[in-house]
C-alpha cells in the first residue's frame, strides 16, 4: 500500500516537464514579493543585485537584510537549473501541484555558507540554521514569475491582505496603524495589555500571527481562536485585525526584524510594536541590540516602539512594567510562554492573573479532548446552572472548576 502510494506520487511528478520543486515557504516568499510587500524589492534578484545587497545591506538605497533569490535544493532541481536557457519557461511545483511558472532570465551559483550566515546573522550552528542549510541549493534562478494559487491545495496561502487593511482603515477613518508580529503561544494578559497600549496610541492594530511549518504544543488554529475570543469580548473589535504570517526562514535571524519592519510598512502600517512574545526572545530582552539594528537602517520610515517587559507584582498586586515597579525581582512573576505551556501540558489551569480562565479552558479542552466526559455524565448536575440540567462540555467544566477554586470559604 505504502509503496503503491509512492509509485503513484512518482508517476505524477514525472509528468511535470522542466519543473522546479519548491516548498511552501518559498511559495509564500514569492507571494510576499509579488504582492509588493517586500518593496522596493519587486522581483527575484540577479547575480549582480545579490552581490550588492549581500555586501552593502542596501537595495536601491533602502536597507534590505539579505538578497532575495530562489535557490531550492535537490538534485533534480540542480539538473533543471543547469540546463535552463534564457527565455525558457520553468513550471513551479509545490507538494505535487503546479503553483506557478518562471521565465528564466539567468541562472547563477550561490555560496550556501555565506547565504546561511547572512540569513541567520551569523548564528549558523543552531538546529534552525542547519534546517535552512539543507533547503538551500547551489544554483539560483532569476526571471519573471507568476503564481497560480487558485487550486484548493493552496488555501494555506490566504494570508496578510493589504486590501483588507486599507479597507478597514477607510471604514474607521484611521490615521495611525500599528502592527505587531506575535506567536501568542498562549495568549496572556500581557498581550492584552500591549494591545490596549497600542490602541491608546493608534486607531487600528494589525496582529500578524505567526504560522509555523511545524507547530509546537499550540497550533495556529487554537492560538487564533484564543486571540479572537479576547478581542471579541474585551477589546474594540472593529479596531483590530488578525492575519496569519507564515514564519518563513527569511525571518529566522536577528535581521528578520528588519524584514518585519519592511513588510508592515508595505502593508500601510506606520508603527510596529516589538512585544514580549517576539519569536526571537533574546532580542527582546536586549533592547540595546534592537536599537542598534534600527539605528543603522536606511529609509525605512516605520516607527519602532519597544514595549518594556511586564510582570505580575505581588506587592503592587497587579500587572506592572519592570520600569515602573519599585519592588524587587522576588515579588515578580514573569510571563514566559514556555512556563505557561508547561503548566497547560501537565493538564493544569494556569493562574488567572497570567491567563484569562476562558483562554485556559479552551486550550485545555483542545489539549485533552473529552477528558471529563465520564465525570460530567456522573456528576454533571453538580455544576448545573440555576438548577437546570444542561448539556455541558469540558470547556464549561474547566470554567466552573476555576470559579470554585476562586470561591473562598466563610470565616
Ligand atoms: Zn511592585
Describe this structure in words.
The protein is α/β, with parallel strands linked by helices. The chain has 16 helices and 15 strands. The chain has a 5-stranded mixed β-sheet with strand order 1-5-6-7-4. A 5-stranded parallel β-sheet has the order 10-9-8-11-12, sandwiched between helices. A 3-stranded antiparallel β-sheet has the order 14-13-15, with no helix packed on it. The radius of gyration is 24 Å and the shape is globular. The N terminus is likely disordered.
Topology:
Blueprint: H1 2-14, E1 19-21, H2 24-34, H3 47-56, E2 58-59, E3 62-63, E4 70-72, H4 75-83, E5 89-94, E6 97-109, H5 112-119, H6 127-134, E7 136-147, H7 162-171, E8 177-182, H8 189-201, E9 204-211, H9 220-234, E10 240-246, H10 256-266, E11 271-274, H11 281-285, H12 287-295, E12 303-306, E13 310-313, E14 318-321, E15 332-334, H13 337-345, H14 357-367, H15 373-379, H16 394-405
Parallel strand pairs: 1-5, 8-9, 8-11, 9-10, 11-12
Antiparallel strand pairs: 2-3, 4-7, 5-6, 6-7, 13-14, 13-15
The structure holds zinc ion (ZN).
Zinc ion is lined by residues 313, 315-316, 320, 325, 327, 331.
**Order of strands in the sheet with the most strands?**
1-5-6-7-4
Mean pLDDT: 85
Q: In this structure, how is the largest beta sheet organized?
A: 5 strands, mixed
Number of strands: 15
Strand content: 15-25%
What structural class is derived from the secondary structure elements? alpha/beta
